[in-house]
Amino acid sequence: NQQPEYRGSLPLGDIASSAVSEHKKTWTELLKWVVEQAKDKPCLVSNTDTQDHLKELAGSNKDVLEEPFAHLFMQGCQEVSANPPLVAFAMRPSIGVWEYVQISAEDLAVMPLGVGEYLRFKEQLIDGKDEDELNALWTLEFDVSPFNSRIPRMSRPGSIGQGVKFLNSVLSGRMFTSRLGAQSFYPIHGFLQQLRADGANVMINDSIQNPEDLNVALRKAEQRLDKLDPETPYKDVAPLLNKLGLERGLPIVHRVAILSPHGFFGQKDVLGKPDTGGQIVYILDQVKALEKEILKRFEDQGVEADVQIVIVTRLIPEAQGTTCDQRIEPIDGTKHTRILRVPFRSKQGIAKKWISRFEVWPYLEQFAMDVAPQLQEELGGKPDLIIGNYSDGNLVATLLSHYMNVTQCNIAHALEKTKYSDADINWKEMDADYHFSSQITADLIAMNNADFIITSTYQEIAGTQETVGQYEAHGSFTMPGLYRVVNGIDCFDPKFNIVSPGADPETFFSYSEDDRRLKDLHKGIEEMLFGPPSKEAVGELKDKSKPMLFSMARLDRVKNLSGLVEWYAKNERLRKVTNLVIVGGIVDPEVSNDHEEKAQCEKMHALIKEHKLEGEFRWLVAQNNSKRNGEIYRYIADRKGAFVQPALYEAFGLTVIEAMSCGLPCFATSKGGPAEIVVNGESGFHIDPFHGAAAADVMADFFEKVHESEENWQAVSDTALERIRTHYTWAIYAERLMSLARIYSFWKFVSNLDRNEMRRYQEMFYILKLRPLIAKVPLQEQ
Ligand code: UDP
Ligand code: LCN
After folding, report:
1. Kind plus residue range of the DSSP H or E element containing 573
2. Is the peptide bond between 264 and the residue preceding it cis, with omega within 30 degrees of 0?
3. Which of 142, 135, 120 lies closest to 768 in space, CA to CA?
4. pLDDT at 320
5. What are the residues whose beta carbons fall under 8 Å from the beta carbon of 672, sequence distance 6 or more?
6. Where in this chain does the record put each Sucrose synthase first GT-B domain (predicted)?
7. How high is the mean pLDDT of the chain?
8. What is the pTM of this model?
9. Distance CA 548, CA 654 (A)
10. ipTM for this model
């Protein structure tokens, strides 16, 4: 990642003061315009509108925009809050760096604000001016910075997401300082000793009693091994090493628990249901890759150990024809991996139906406690590593790892605060439907409790020069009336590591691999795409020769499938050169009990009617057969089509990886992970979901070019395949994750005392804040 470095600047207050005095007229006009937007009520004003307005005011006077404050404002202003006559700006001069300033529209007085002051300013937009100054002053502030002061921190945006590399250099620096001599071996000796205590002799035996012994043994071993052929088998060197006190290797990680509580989680017939998408695909592919990697490592180390991987999810008695009502489900293609399902329990008994991910909060604590003994029984002991997935899984992972003192890894998949803009500041309005107050609080606790966090992209942590990262967005924010976060998480923390997933290579491979193609599925696929409308397919493609613009996703608002339909409908050029094919959720709104899915379904029908799309548009219900989905992507590639990912925000975007793995050019949303997967203009194209007409033009331009020459399609397709091969595979993923698990287990051991304070703080926040919030979330009718 080539991320620019922090540019550095004069203090924000100083540059703002000189800007407003030098270009008094322009800034007066701009601030007048901003406060005008807030004349009825203090509010957040769109930062992009404010930037556009400054550009307009500057007109041909280049000096205005080139002056430092205006430059920073144009590049890095993320928020404009207006409470007339005062206007406050949140500026992001560089990735992960934030500063705040307030300017009065009346007299242009400038005042730099601290983060807490800025958040307090924002709270007034919602709650009005707090008459009780003391109340505002003594609002609870969440701040983890004091606990992290002893944790080494990275400083360059370019190193964000490479925590393990940084930590390795810190650890080896600490351990091999000659100044301390053998004393520097103290942590590693302690670590090895506790491993040994776990069972038989591994790594070291009783002849090594202290760090000095270890130091001497290592030196001697090194001298003797140096003289041998590097290929000498372990059994030949074992006697020599044992005598020195050294034993065979140890599988630090061989019992893994993976948490994904909300359903549906199964191997068949679940994808495309509300909430059940990429996270399931990700975990099913992940466990296969992990099992393979662990077994390979054991073989390399000459170790025989029992490998156990258990995916923990909720058991749903009313499983709608899926396997989600079975306690145990072995994972196909593995020997040591299975799903363990434990029901959600409450005072009302066992919850029988599927429950939306937004409503699961009241069940999780009990779930964690019910899972703990069953998990240990299944694994044959305490896990070595607990991996949480999504907010609910990460909270349960937090409770379990707290309880069992096990290394915890978090995977967010998506942090809802970023998907639903203003979910923090407007939490009161949204809480009845989404319970974001619980979810955001849970996220905050879980991310601070995790020993390490893996993300699929850089942007997930820290965004880009222009956009804010998902974790970065948890650095500071406020939920008025609840609490204020002045330092929630630091994206320079070495706990962050980018480990990107791939797509199952057995399922998603290039259309050009002719001998692997599933040709016997083609008849069914043709029927699906071109057959007459039915209960599961809306619309009919009249001109079958046109290439297909294809999209597939769950039918929720943020996925924006209805947006894509609208862009297509309104662009004559695009309609002329392509057909539109969408796989999305359901086509009958009556069959859904998910409010977003229902609303989106109705919207799609209205668009079809309004724009008379029947002859050019095919809309199919969710497709659960991934093997066939692979062949659908390839079938569309055969006919020189393309894939569109139109989401308003996409955390990562597995469909983009799948489509590219099959050789399809992609038009991928510029909001989120896909913008990192696709290199614009090379391995696909970025589209801005908030500028639909422009997005449709990008697609129309491409297909017109392809119409002129197929080479234009071929070039993008080839580059997409290459991008996947070099960056997004499960084999790379598993190797990295296992290395991280080992290093962070050691790090957890050596930094345990430092982290105790943080752990206690999180515990207090959990008990005093999160539990009461969750207590307000109603149990679901069953
Ligand atoms: N998917 C599917 N059938 C559908 C819709 C989606 O098999 O009808 C699969 C899709 O192939 C991908 C996953 O579900 O593997 C969706 O993952 P993505 O990361 O794109 O989005 P998410 O649903 O996780 O937000
Ligand atoms: C959830 C999402 O929203 C997607 O963006 C990811 O691709 C998926 O999980 C897998 O991580």
Report:
1. helix 572-577
2. yes
3. 142
4. 93
5. 418, 459, 647, 649, 650, 651, 652, 653
6. 250-530
7. 93
8. 0.92
9. 20
10. 0.99
8 A C-beta contact, residue 498 and residue 461: yes
166 pLDDT more than 70: yes
Q: Compute the distance from residue 341 Cα to the ligand 1 centre, in Å.
A: 22
Closest ligand 1 atom to Cα of 625: 7
Q: Are 342 and 315 in contact (CB under 8 A)?
A: yes
Enclosing H/E stretch for 550: strand 548-553
Determine contact, residues 381/406, Cβ cutoff 8 Å.
no
Q: What are phi and psi of 25, to 5 degrees?
A: -65, -45
Q: Comparing C-alpha atoms, which of 430, 344, 474, 447 is closest to residue 390?
A: 447
Centre of ligand 2 from the C-alpha of residue 652, in Å:
5
* Strand, helix or coil for residue 312: strand
Ligand 2 proximal residues by C-beta, below 6 Å: 278-279, 282, 413-414, 456, 650-654, 673
Residue with tokens 């040994």: 196
Which residues are CB-neighbours of 203 under 8 A, at least 6 positions away?
Answer: 192, 195, 196, 246, 247, 248, 249, 250
How far apart CA 350 and CA 369 sit, in angstroms, is 15
User: In this structure, are residues 619 and 587 in contact, taking their beta carbons and an 8 Å threshold?
Assistant: yes
Amino acid at position 437, single letter: S
DSSP element (H, E) containing 711: helix 711-727
- Neighbour-count burial for 678-695, b at 16+ CB within 10 Å, e otherwise: beeeebbbbbebeebeeb
Listed range (125-139, 425-439, 702-716, 760-774) with the worst mean pLDDT: 125-139
pLDDT of res. 6 = 37
> Which of these ranges, 184-188, 205-209, 680-684, has the smallest mean pLDDT?
184-188
Note the pLDDT of residue 231: 87
Those residues whose C-beta lies under 8 Å from the C-beta of residue 483, and which sit 6 or more positions away, are 139, 140, 141, 142, 769
| Angle of CA points 366, 419, 434, to nearest 5° | 45
Structure tokens at 172: 């080896």
SS3 216: helix
Strand pairing class (496-498; 86-94): unpaired
State in Å: Cα 257 to ligand 1 middle.
Answer: 23
Q: Answer whether 358's CB lies under 8 Å from 390's CB.
A: no
Residue 374 CA: distances (Å) to CA of 158, 291, 362, 378, 383: 43, 21, 20, 6, 12
